Amino acid sequence: MINTDAKKHTVLIIDDELQIRRLLRVYLERNGYEVIEAPTGIDGIGEVARCHPDAVLLDLGLPDMDGLAVLKRLREWSQVPVLVVSVRGQDDDKIVALDNGADDYLTKPFSTGELLARLRVAHRHAQPSSPPAVFRARNLEVDLATRTVKVNGQKVKLTATEYSLLNMFVRHAGKVLTHGQVLREIWGPADADKTGYLRVYMAYLREKIELNPAEPELLITEPGVGYRLALQE
Predict the structure, then answer these.
(1) DSSP of 172-207
(2) Which of 111, 144, 227, 232 has a CA that sits 20 to 30 A from residue 153's CA?
(3) Rounded to an integer, what distance in angstroms lies between the CA atom of residue 230 and that of residue 233?
(4) In whole angstroms, what separates CA 180 from the centre of its chain?
(5) Could you give the number of structural domains in the chain?
(6) Comparing C-alpha atoms, which of 147, 6, 159 is closest to residue 77?
(7) Among residues 24, 67, 22, which one has the least CA distance to residue 43?
């Protein structure tokens, strides 16, 4: 069934096997799709940020990083439909991929007809376009695809926890996040009442991204409730 939409859908293939990419490209283009290729996980993440494809075909066995790691990175900032295509056919592999944000899972080898059907389903269920991969507010710039943080154009080094915290605020920019919401996502349910952790790390983060940490303009305290990342006014 040929894709006859006025706007062609774009599919990104993230797979290190050139022969597989060529085969998929031929079949997808024959059925009306535009195709982008990426041989590594890092290349794939970059292509999603640059080209905003309508769907991603993701192999799990990549040379630079596991496909699940690519999936987790993408889900930090993008809701693009991701169909895992892998030789790993055990139920546990499928469950882990789906739990980490995959929209579907096909085990190699698969029929091209099945692939097209799964892509059509993914397009029907696709969410609205993801926000840009680069967030900017005042003096702050956060590139969610590369995990790069800049203040006044200069790179700022954050710890893993500090970055996870900032990433959460960027994904919910302008919204108030309660202490419990942040603690559960960053530290886990067992630490949901340990607001001292959060106060300490908010202080660390403000020291690194605010022009005047004593009078923050980005990470705003909502007394008795939580915090909010202010949008550019």
Answers:
(1) TTTSEEEHHHHHHHHT-GGGTT-HHHHHHHHHHHHH
(2) 227
(3) 8
(4) 23
(5) 2
(6) 147
(7) 67
Edge-to-edge strands of the sheet including 176-178?
176-178, 226-229, 219-222
| Token duo for residue 49 | 């940020």
Kindly list the averaged pLDDT for each block of 10 residues, start to end, along the chain of length 233.
61 95 94 96 93 94 94 89 89 86 88 90 70 83 91 94 92 85 86 83 95 92 88 64
Please count the other Cβ atoms lying within 10 Å of the Cβ belonging to residue 196: 9
What pLDDT is attached to residue 4? 47
Q: Which CA distances in Å does 68 have to 24, 135, 198? A: 21, 24, 28
Kindly report the CA angle at 175 between 170 and 180, in degrees rounded to 5? 90
- Domain range for residue 60? 10-125
Q: Which residues contact 92 (CB under 8 A, 6 or more apart)?
A: none
- CATH number of 217's domain: 1.10.10.10
Torsion of CA 147, 191, 177, 155, to 10 degrees: -20
Packing angle, helices 195-209 and 179-186, rounded to 10? 90
The angle that helices 112-125 and 18-30 make with each other, rounded to 10 degrees, is 70
**Rounded Cα distance, 55 and 79, in Å:** 10
Domain boundary among 72, 105, 125: 125
The total of other beta-carbon atoms located within 10 Å of residue 71's CB is: 22
159's tokens: 């710890």
